[in-house]
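call fold(seq) -> tokens
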Amino acid sequence: MRSWANIARRIRVPLGFLFAIFYVWQARPTWESLLAGAAICVPGLVLRGVASGHVQKNTCLTTTGPYACTRNPLYLGSLVLAGGFAVAARSLWVALAIVALFAAVYLPVVWAEEEFLRLRFPEFADYERQVPRFLPRWAPGEARQGKFSSQLYWKHREYNALLGAGAIMAALVTKMLWVR
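ret:
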């Protein structure tokens, strides 16, 4: 499994670009599906943005902000974003591909990252017992310790998620207007 996780980590971005082609090809958007999908995408983008402004990769275990509620807010945000794109596309094939990609690529990456954190940060064991992997537990008092850092947001280039989401939505609008 470890070797697949390494492969999955390396191919997830190029695979995302290939999936985008499949996505636009299979999408059958309407204005209603586009608006509903965008309404779902926005919280996913916000969650990813806030999480990226808290995480200090490989230097310390981040347990503040959204990391106080879920161990993987970046992946949860991506999953919410993907759900919004599935709604916008109105395609069963797109929805099935999203589920398959998440199961085959992202779950192994999450497991490998958690194994790395276990080895690197001894306090991860306590954190892991208290905070769920994906579905958040709402403990707003615990998020108070950390502050959002716009410098981290820019350092992690999280704006690319917003740009990518905008590009996909623009492609869907283009498809609706010119492909009938």
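The mean pLDDT is 90.
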